[in-house]
Amino acid sequence: MTTLQRIRNHGVILLVVVGVAMLAFILGDFLNSGSSFFNRSRENVAVIAGHKVHYTEYEAAKDQLTEVYKIESGSNDINEEMTLQIRNQVWQMLLMDYTLQEQADKIGMDVTAEELSELCIGANPHQLIRQRRAFYDETGNFNRFALINFLNSLAQVPETQEQAANMQQAKTYWMYWENAVRLTHLQEKYVDLLGKLVTANPLDAKYAFEARQTSTNVEFVEQPYFAVADSLVSVSDADIKKLYNAQKEQYKRTPNRALVYVSFPIVPSESDYAEIEKLMKSIENDFQTKEDITALVNSNSDILYDGRDYSESTIPAEYKEFAFNKKAKKGQYTEMTFADGTYAMARIMDCGYTKPDSVKLVLVANGEGTEDVELGWYQANELQKNIAGPAFTGKKGSQFTVSTGMGEQTFKIADKSAATPKVKLAILSRKVTPSSKTYGVLYNEAKQFIVNNGNVELLRQAAQEQGLSVTPAFDLNVNADKVNNLKNSRGIVRWAFEAKEGQLSDVFECGDQFVVAALTEVNEGDYRTLDEVRMELTLQATADKKAEYLMAQLKEVKTLEEAAALWNVDIQRAENINLASTRMGAAGVEPAVIGTALALENNSTSAPVKGNAGVYMVRIGEKTTAEGQLNTEAEISSLNMRSSYSIPYQAIALIEENAEVEDNRARFQ
Q: Helix (H, G, I), strand (E, B), or coil: what is residue 473?
């Protein structure tokens, strides 16, 4: 399993995702294992296009995607932010998978086993396979032999439990990308079919051609809406209601909540600082004098001592002068310091020697039909200890064999960087953190805050008196991962959808702070209410009234010069305007004005035109028609090329929008 080892050794690698590649991990066999007992409807995370997504399927999907992230990133650390991303991606994957598959089934479209095999291991594999660094050669290019070698290794019989675990991880990795290729190709086929069905016709070609051919220079006057005082127009409730009803669909929404919260920082107390200072002083002498301090450091310090070699470029900046000055010698130590909440001291365990900063390793072929694999350059802390030791002590060109999770492996030291001065430095560093006693005191303070302030107004008042900030959070969806930027705050979202308006929450621990929330708004309707959008509707209605006011001023005006004099503005000019133009000179985006100008007869002036930013009056001279003959075929090809970029996104969005989806994720996260 040398390929899997290469993935791990290469450290952080960005996932390359094309189209819906990330969706396909849910297509494995574990998805098809149906239930044989009782009604599991309460255990369904969702129902998508008639397919019931059981909780176990959802969790298996998250677990597999998590494994892929771990393998490709070379790290087992999945932080909260990454967990939230994975959860959101899983949902999008589920949506896309079942909605697309439903459409494909209706028209008999599929990816056959033969197609999938050719796409994965054929002469020219799919780009998702070609982009995997696991299958690169020493030149940094895709190597089909490396791919075949990886697949052959999956058929090996493991000799140990560790090998079996690594092999299973490798199989999971391959199944993910194989399925990714399958679903990505299914999408490509579906979109390609739509592209052939949704095509421009000769009439489209004619309109597009003519829109570019005829152009004119436009003179215009403009009076912006902001130039009219609000007091000159009157907007009634009837006007606002009419606007609201006309564009109500714009205000569609899902049920949401609004709340405010008060945060109580979880910080160390004075006694916590005194306790850590006392501890550090009690072990200071042993740290300075004992021969072997490994156990002492590793049981008390935030920075473990593993005998690593520090260079001037890798040592913590605050110890560079101490460890690398000309008088530095083994056994020297610093006095204890305190900065940024941390007590620290350091001791030189060894110095006066040189080592290379990095080595270049090659994985030596371990059998017939395999090739050496160049792994690249590594620093010592990037390698397992049993590999780093011989790699940095051995000579250039020599080989060494070590036991890894996949059995015996032989490495060749292809090259080494120049040797530079090194030191071994033990650092005893301890950041002061809240003790359990402090934690309890702070928690009880937050609890008492709830007892003393039983409603939203009392909460606001008490927070102000105590110098605490009250932070609002709006439009919380039932599936929101967190509240604003509060860490680990999914619990507050769950509470908000179970509580009553005006209710105060219990104490939530959100990272480094306790949080008390108050539910201020419960919105269950399908649409935002008139009151919620009244302000924006008032602005829109006011602009409409101003347009009527300005257009009435020009009722008897016949020329641009008269309009300019009436409004005390200059006549402006826009050159070479045609129906394909997106902007009208300095006026900006004004499609209605452009359309009006091009519809005028030569040498004529328009009536007042209501635009986006104000009211206009335009005048054109002679329209000109460029020479050229319509090439219908070329025009259609150009239109189709432009639409080909938008069709995939529009089609997939429309499929998901029209699918029947029952979303129950809030029960499970």
A: strand
Residue 148: count other Cβ atoms within 10 Å of its Cβ.
Answer: 13
Question: Which pair of tokens denotes residue 151?
Answer: 């697949």
**DSSP helix/strand/coil, 174:** helix
Taking phi over 0 as left and psi of -120 to 50 as alpha, with beta for the rest, 307 belongs to: left
Low-confidence residues in the chain, pLDDT < 50 = 2, 6, 8-39
Task: For the sheet with 399-404, list strands across it.
Answer: 373-379, 358-363, 407-416, 399-404
**Closest to 505 (Cα-Cα) out of 462, 471, 456:** 456
CB 311 within 8 A of CB 422: yes
Q: Share the mean pLDDT of the chain.
A: 86
- Cβ(568)–Cβ(227) under 8 Å? no
Q: Which residues pair with 338 in a beta bridge?
A: 343
Report the helix count and the strand count for the chain, using DSSP H and E.
20, 20
Residue count (the chain): 669
3 state DSSP class of 226 = helix
Instruction: Render pLDDT for 452-495 as a digit per residue (tens, 0 to 9).
Output: 999 999 999 999 999 999 999 998 999 888 999 999 999 999 99
d(CA 276, CA 282): 10
Helix pair angle (436-452, 456-465), 10° resolution: 130
116-138 exposure pattern, b = at least 16 Cβ within 10 A, e = fewer:
beebbeeeebbbbbbbbebbbee
Coil, helix or strand at residue 317: helix
Of 129, 122, 239, 234, which is closest to residue 177 (Cα–Cα)?
129
Residue indicated by tokens 């605050």: 318
Helical residues (DSSP H) of 453-529, grouped into ranges: 456-465, 490-496
CA distance 584 to 590: 6
Task: Show the CA angle centred on residue 137, arms to residues 136 and 138, nearest 5°.
Answer: 125
All domains of the chain in start order, with CATH: 2-196+660-667 (no CATH), 209-251+531-625 (3.10.50), 256-267+434-523 (3.10.50), 271-431 (no CATH)
- The sign of the torsion formed by the CA atoms of 153, 68, 126, 101 equals positive
Q: How far apart are CA 400 and CA 394, in angstroms?
A: 8
Instruction: Give the count of alpha carbons within 13 A of 100, CB side only.
Output: 29
Share of the chain above pLDDT 70, in %: 92
Residue 510, helix vs strand vs coil: strand
Strand partners, 333: 347
The span from the CA of 305 to the CA of 292, in Å, is 11
Cα dist from 345 to 275, 351, 496, whole Å: 17, 17, 47
If one counts every other C-beta atom within 10 angstroms of the C-beta of residue 179, the result is: 21
Strand partners, 343: 338, 430
Q: Which tens digits make up the pLDDT trace of 488-541?
A: 999 999 999 999 999 999 999 999 999 999 999 998 878 888 988 999 999 999
What's the half-sphere exposure (Cβ side, CA atoms, 13 Å) at 479? 14
- CB-CB neighbours of 173 under 10 Å: 23
Task: Give the per-residue pLDDT at 536.
Answer: 93
Q: Which residues of 216-255 are buried (b: 16+ CB within 10 A; e: fewer)?
A: bbbbbbbbebeebeeeebebeeebbeebbeeeeeebeeee
User: Would you state the torsion angle of the CA atoms of residues 315, 321, 326, 328, taken in this order, to the nearest 10 degrees?
Assistant: -70
